[in-house]
Structure formats: structure tokens, C-alpha cells
Protein: Olfactory receptor
Amino acid sequence: YDRLIAICWPLRYSTINTNLRMLLIIAGIWSLVILLEIFPVIFAARLPYCSSREVQSCCCEHGPVYKLACTDISYNRQLAAAKTLTALLGPLTFIIFTYVIVVVAVTRIASISQRWKAFHTCLTHLLLVLLYYMPVILAYILGNLRLVQNVDLFTAILTVSVTLPQMLNPIIY
Structure:
């Protein structure tokens, strides 16, 4: 969003990206995240757990918790898939859509040096997006297709996928 405004409307940037607008965007995103997480927690809390209550994950996520239930978990499995796809593909779709608009706007710039400057502005962000989404999507695919049977290996993949991009963020920028 920030790159879109900076490149497509540079002279109006400060009037579009006001503190109030940023606060509303942040509040909206936090509200969406809370709503995405509240329903799985409620549904997982209602399940009966008969066997082990040891969660086989580095964090207490919905999937590893509801798999411990001793009843039909098909609804929880569908809810987890929908939540994961929404949380992954929603922002990724928005990022791709905004970058398509940015690329169209940049190609209209006459000066090659200005085009390069605009692309360079976006390049670091795109690198971080790829560093985040590739391992997360890979972990999601490996987990759903049951290609990784070792719980410790899957936990390591998930841990790397959520920590590595944040660690590289200061280095890349």
C-alpha cells in the first residue's frame, strides 16, 4: 500500500497516508486477525479430548490442537484450511494487485533512471514478500500433502518460515 501511494501519487502521499488513515488500516487488520483466530479457538475448545493433550508443535496452533480430539474433526479441518488460505492468499493477492498497478504506472515514466529508482524502491519489499511467502506456502503444502512425516522436521520448517524473514528484514533494508 505504501509503495503504491508513493509511486502512483507521490505529490499526494502525505495527504493520503495520514496518521488517522494508518491507524484505521492497522485497527482493521488487527480486527480481522482477531476474528480469524477467535472462531477456531471456540470450536477447538468445544471438542472432547480423550487421549494425549501434548501439542506436537512449537506453538499452540489450531491444527495441532484439534487433531488431538477424539471425535469428527472434518469441520475443524475445513475451518483451518479456509482460515489459512484467507490469511495467506488475502494479503498476497493484495500485494500482487498493488504491484501490478505500480508496474503499469512505472512503465509510463519516460526516464529510465526514474523507472529504475521506482523499481528499486519496490525490489527490497518484494524480496521480503518472497522470503516470507515461499517457506510458509511450502510448509503449508508439505503439511497438507503429508510429505513431511517427522513432526520435528515440520516444526523446524515452520519455525524457520516465521522467523527468517523478520531476521533478514533489517539486513535487506
In short: The longest helix spans residues 74-107. Residues 109-172 form one domain. The two ends are 17 Å apart (CA to CA).
